[in-house]
User: Fold these one by one.
Assistant:
Number 1:
Amino acid sequence: MGRVTTSTADLWHHYGRARATSDRAVPDTFRWSWGQDAGPGPEVLGDLTGRCVGDLGAGAARHAAHLVVHHQPARVIAIDASPAQHAMATDLYADLAPRLHIMQSGAVPHLQAMTGAYDVLYSVFGALDFTDPRELLPAAAAALKPGGRLVYSTLAHYLSGAPAQPDAVAADIPAKTPDGEATMMRRWVLQEHVWTKLLDEAGFTNITVDVLPAAPGPRTADTLLVSAHYPS
Ligand SMILES: C[S@@+](CC[C@H](N)C(=O)[O-])C[C@H]1O[C@@H](n2cnc3c(N)ncnc32)[C@H](O)[C@@H]1O
């Protein structure tokens, strides 16, 4: 039986590690869906030309690298709390500096230190899924410029098929420590109306939530694609 880890074990040590050994390319596409295979792309972020963009929970920074290479943002800051993910992103894409800035930090303290700095914040199954939204969403609102935009994809239901939560509560899900020990981590899988209420309480407007249906196959899931603006 696993235990809940409260230490600083990096529970993202293994994520994307095998892929990074063989696929070092900047992706040609940017997808929001769980399967990364279909659905809308970065156009959902609006025109990024000259914009300051932040990826919250960027992992290996593949989405951020795509934006830097295939769009014209002033800068994309790829933020991730995991030392392993930060190292992987640096190994893969450090040559895209200075327009890609790879930063190791928790999303909340980073955003709290960046008042009014960002035009666009986004997350692809990243920090929004694994951080208390009552801390993260107000911090994101404060870090956006007036008229700025937050867009994120998150699970529409648990991978088991169980429905998302009707309240703003996390569930413990299985994870692995760097040395392979079974443990648990917290994930927020919330129903559409819960996200809408939390975003509204954090000061966002123009909130939309779209369901991106899963492609057929094993371990697929529907995606919620959430978009909101910080008022002008
Ligand atoms: C499922 S991975 C997704 C990574 C990437 N967005 C992708 O699509 O490949 C989740 C990532 O979010 C990061 N993360 C979770 N909570 C975070 C937080 N509060 N601040 C920064 N990064 C966080 C983890 O370290 C992990 O790299």
Number 2:
Amino acid sequence: MFKEDLFSKSARKNLETDLSTAHAIVEATNNVYHKIDNPDGVLNLGVAVNKLQEDLVLQKDLDYGDPIGSSELRDNISKVINRHFNPYKDISLDDIVVVNGITSGLDKIASVLCDPGDAILIPTPCYSSFELDFYLQAKANVQFVPIPLHDFNSANQVSYYEKKLKELTQLNIKVKLIVICNPNNPLGVCYPKPALQEILKFADQNNIFVLFDEIYALSVYRNLPCSDPLLDYSQNNDLVSDVLVPFESVLSWCDLDSFIDPNLVIVAHGLSKDFCLNGFRVGWIICPWNKSFLTSISTIGEFSYIAGIADSIVCKFLADSTFLDSFITTMQTNLLTSFEKTTSYLTSKNVPFVPGMAGSFLWINIKHQLLIWKNNNLNPNESPVLDTNQLTFDDELAMWSDILQNGRIYITSGASFHSMEPGWARIIFAIPWETLKVGLDRLFDFMAKSHSSKSL
Ligand SMILES: Cc1ncc(COP(=O)(O)O)c(C=O)c1O
């Protein structure tokens, strides 16, 4: 039996709050009286809305709407999940809370689980905004768990979490959540199940929630029937073997409860990546197991939920399964084509990269370019750097800033993803080749030749 004492004090208090008025408003907006179509519906004489000009406005779409997403929208989302995530048990609309983007969802999750100062463990390299998303409002204490690239596929990576938990326990810091981004941003690879099983067992033993950020679940391109599985990228890097672990949503695990109490498992997905609609600010949190967790998220939903008009448009967008199926296939095929062009380019420049299979990015190693740039841009009192091992994160950030200011190319530096060593970067390859080629040429020419104004 799940006990809410794992939630933050604030979330527990919220659960005791009398929400009857909020529920009544939702009922009144979801079941509106109509003389002919719905004579038994609720006559809404409670919500302070001026309906006298109703014929002049777009009616339903401009009403307050439901803070957790209309039932129609959540039903359509559940159909997308059931069609594309292969869930073990069908997901229903009641297993879903819609949020205004996963960024906002992460803040809500932190606020429900963490009192200020409680820790969230995030394996690195990781999506650069996690730290602020969990900290800025909820004041959760983000603790990075550096995982060497060669351990990404290994079940032994749990030992890094164990060590971090020990350190934090000695400091009297409670760990409330582990965040697993699968498929991973920035690596573009998926976690092997044995590695996840060990992490889940560890979380279960220590009463820690696990959030699966599956925002790139449908942007998996390299296990397509048309992809060439024989292309082996292993020689391209000495760090990660090209094993092509297929993506499996945690929702699809029939044996989840052999590793963890499912009450501790949360899934996040949304429109931003897999549907290329980041401006809509629509995401969803799925938790078929723990209803009080979803209720806790709903209670704070009122502060920031999606506009009725977005609800209505997204609802129509997700209802068209024929369109969506072909959209997803086209998107994955385009990603694969762009990935192949970009990796051929990188290979021609001898740039190692993690052979990704999902997402719109590549994690590339530019430490040799950084060494050349560094020696071209030494401060007057600095001696030449002879080995890539001597490079620092300050060097990386200085080159990154020079690339942006003077090269006019924006890439993301490895440091912002909390990379373990300097010299990594994430580049986006989901850009038409014509433009991407200009960007790559400009980037590699700049790193080879640049002398910033401070150089001798
Ligand atoms: C792993 C990951 N999670 C969450 C987000 C934020 O998503 P949203 O646009 O829904 O706020 C991003 C965006 O880049 C991301 O890469």
